[in-house]
Amino acid sequence: IEAGEFFSLLGPSGCGKTTLLRIISGFDNPSVGTVFIGGADMTDVPPNERPTNMVFQSYAIFPHLNVADNVGYGLKKQKLPKEEIDRRVDDALKLVDLEGYGPRESHALSGGQRQRLAIARALIAEPAFLLLDEATSALDAESEQSIRKSVEALKGEMTILVIAHRLSTVRQADRILVFEEGELIASGTHAELVKDSELYARFADIQFSS
């Protein structure tokens, strides 16, 4: 995966997508192979010391904190000045189209808004590598489109790796890899993959779409 690339993994459940994501982020250890990020060997480096940030399917939002406090939680732990925290929180919320939502209670947000909050919290740490695990899997069409636009707006700003359950959600990816049972079976852009009628037929159950 090249620096600054918008990269995506697709495939049926159990094919190894999330395992690979967890290995890159440091939550799982590879049985073989080595993980390099920015030319540095990260294989034995714990997650909190890697230049990565991962957004999980579960969002992991703190229900007792409002939106701004959720997003700025990590910065407060670092004891940064309040003015800097407020500025970076505002910038992160703008990036995910949640400007002005800071005072709102996080438990009152919709599913799509909570997902965007989780992305903002990951972005505020300014990671070199952003990892998104099924960022739109449980969302309605409108929320999914909003999340997709938020992620696409980051293209070129950092390296992004997205696990997606529909090909249509990663139209702007620079490269998409398709896995089956731990094996790479296809790769290309969105436009290239939707032209492969055999691939489409084999993976209709995971909603490949043009």
Q: What is the overall number of helices?
A: 8
Distance between the termini: 24 Å
Order of helices and strands: EHEEEHHHHEHEEEHH
Poorly predicted tracts of residues? none
Strand content: 15-25%
Q: What is the residue-mean pLDDT, rounded to a whole number?
A: 82
Biggest sheet descriptor? 6 strands, mixed
User: What is the radius of gyration?
Assistant: 17 Å
Helix content: 25-40%
**Rough outline:** globular
Strand order of the largest sheet: 4-5-6-1-7-8
Q: Count every beta strand, where a strand is a DSSP E run of 2 or more residues.
A: 8
Class of secondary structure makeup:
alpha/beta
List keywords for this structure.
single chain; 210 residues; alpha/beta; 6-stranded mixed β-sheet; two-stranded antiparallel ribbon; 8 helices; 17% strand; globular
Describe this structure in words.
This protein is an alpha/beta fold and 210 residues long. The protein has 8 helices and 8 strands; from the N terminus they run βαβββααααβαβββαα. The chain has helices spanning 17-25, 67-71, 73-77, 82-95, 111-123, 141-152, 190-194, 197-202; strands at residues 6-10, 36-37, 40-41, 52-55, 129-133, 159-163, 175-180, 183-188. The chain has a 6-stranded mixed sheet with strand order 4-5-6-1-7-8, sandwiched between helices. Strands 2-3 form a two-stranded antiparallel sheet. Strand 5, helix 6 (141-152) and strand 6 (159-163) form a beta-alpha-beta unit. Helix 4 crosses helix 5 and helix 5 (111-123) packs parallel to helix 6 (141-152). The protein starts with 5 loop residues before the first strand and ends in an 8-residue tail after the last helix.
